[in-house]
Amino acid sequence: MDIEMPDVGIVLLQIQSGFYLGLATLNWMTKRALIGGVYNRPLAMGNLFHFGIGAIALVKSSIKTPDHYEIIIPLTLLYSTFTAMFLFVIISNPAKTYNV
Question: What's the CA gap between 56 and 79, in Å, rounded?
Answer without folding.
Answer: 9
